[in-house]
Amino acid sequence: MKLVSARFVTSATGAADIPHDRVPHVALVGRSNVGKSSLINALARHKQLARTSGAAGKTRLANLYRFDVEGGPGGPGRWSVHLADLPGYGYARGGMDSVAELRQVAEGYFSFAGIAGVLHLVDARHPGLDSDLDAAEWLKTLDVQMATVATKVDKLSRSERTRNLKALERQLETAVLPTAAVNGEGLDDLWTLIARLSRHRP
């Protein structure tokens, strides 16, 4: 696959703000510090396409990015996808649990008819977090394709990586794709996964 272009589209507060251009959407969901923006930047090969922040929970909008790609699964030809960086969960204020927090900020987006799939991002360093397990259960209730991606695997030793990935797969009851935005590990496989999700017509 060859990346043709990547650009920021808009910050959406609800379904009414989402562009209706027939381009499928793949949403990135995860804890506030899981590295969604860093992964988008790595996919775009652009250090500042998506702004990253050290302040967990700062993103309160669905930030949409359009990627145009040449080739990939299904044969030659150009295809496009919107990647949506949804507000992170796990840092709720006022005692709100992670599922309620995720539902509050994401329900409007998930009501949009153009969503093709969800990437649930989890930090490879911290398997078994209640917020991730609860969010995974809620995401399974949605009528949408979902895949799980482990971030920051470059920060683990070989033995830690093996142990943590096995734990995540056991806890979440699904395959987990290991990735690292810093060194690009797993990005080719992630593009293949995004292509598969985006070519599903909801």
Task: Please count the beta strands (DSSP E, at least 2 residues each).
Answer: 7
Fourth CATH level, the homologous superfamily = P-loop containing nucleotide triphosphate hydrolases
| Radius of gyration from the alpha-carbon trace, in angstroms | 16 Å
According to CATH, the fold-level topology is Rossmann fold
Adjacency order of strands in the biggest sheet = 1-3-4-2-5-6-7
- N-to-C order of helices and strands: EEHEEHEHEHEH
The helical percent reads 25-40%
Low-confidence stretches: none
Number of helices: 5
Number of domains: 1
Strand content: 25-35%
Question: What is the mean pLDDT?
Answer: 86
Q: How far is the N terminus from the C terminus? A: 23 Å
Q: What class would the helix/strand composition place it in?
A: alpha/beta
Largest sheet: 7 strands, mixed
* Anisotropy-based shape: globular
CATH architecture: 3-Layer(aba) Sandwich
Per CATH, the class reads Alpha Beta
Provide a descriptive summary of the structure in words.
By secondary structure, the protein is of the alpha/beta class. The protein has one domain (2-186): P-loop containing nucleotide triphosphate hydrolases (Rossmann fold, 3-Layer(aba) Sandwich), CATH 3.40.50. It contains 5 helices and 7 strands, in the order ββαββαβαβαβα. The protein has helices at 36-44, 98-110, 130-140, 158-172, 187-198; strands at residues 2-12, 25-30, 62-70, 78-85, 115-123, 145-151, 176-178. Helix 2 (98-110) packs parallel to helix 3 (130-140).
